[in-house]
User: Which sequence fits this backbone?
């Protein structure tokens, strides 16, 4: 149902950006650059501020007709009317998250470099899976190393959209797309750039070369 939208640049907000005004402005630039999915990731800010930021991002993403995903926080995803939630290894099970969300909500799952975890996520009803990190990552330097072979196996054996994350640059993006990545999940290579719109455009254009 969601597969046609689960493709392209998947821009994840920088958790180090603690100015909500600037964060929303940065996301708008990424959207103007063609980002197809926005994930709001903030594990430290007080709830009221996170809710206010999520609400503003929800409005903005609707204006641009792109998907809005909340990292980890199922309650915030529900309260802000986000399109869905992204779950990690230590978050709620898919079934519990599904029970708290609209039946049409998108649920994505981090699978690191674990193909068995990916198969389980598919069986449990995930809408997409994510592997990574593929390259040295500023955001998660200690994350498990993912292999191109795992990505290729997922595209060969699992009928579900796949995101690649971790250290993605313009130089290595095509390798991941050709290996089967439907989405490139990127934080710093978009949001730490001087020209966020141009950075987003560069990555979104990579999908036209698939």
Assistant:
């Amino acid at each position: 149902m969601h597969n046609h939208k689960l493709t392209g640049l998947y821009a994840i907000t920088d958790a180090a950006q603690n100015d909500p005004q600037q964060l929303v402005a940065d996301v708008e630039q990424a959207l103007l650059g063609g980002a197809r999915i926005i994930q709001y990731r903030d594990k430290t800010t007080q709830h009221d501020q996170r809710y206010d930021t999520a609400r503003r991002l929800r409005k903005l993403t609707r204006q641009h007709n792109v998907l809005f995903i909340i990292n980890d926080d199922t309650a915030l995803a529900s309260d802000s009317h986000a399109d869905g939630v992204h779950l990690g290894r230590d978050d709620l099970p898919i079934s519990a998250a599904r029970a708290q969300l609209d039946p049409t909500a998108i649920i994505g799952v981090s699978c690191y470099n674990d193909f068995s975890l990916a198969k389980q996520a598919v069986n449990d009803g995930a809408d997409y899976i994510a592997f990574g990190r593929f390259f040295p990552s500023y955001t998660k330097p200690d994350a498990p190393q993912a292999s191109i072979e795992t990505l290729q196996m997922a595209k060969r054996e699992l009928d579900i959209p796949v995101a690649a994350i971790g250290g993605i640059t313009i130089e290595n993006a095509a390798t991941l797309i050709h290996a089967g990545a439907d989405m490139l999940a990127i934080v710093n290579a978009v949001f730490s750039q001087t020209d966020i719109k141009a950075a987003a455009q560069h990555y979104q254009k990579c999908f036209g070369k698939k």
Remarks:
- Strands lie at 8-12, 37-40, 67-71, 84-87, 106-112, 128-131, 162-165, 183-186.
- The chain has a mean pLDDT of 94.
- Residues 32 and 46 are 28 Å apart (CA to CA).
- The longest strand covers residues 106-112.
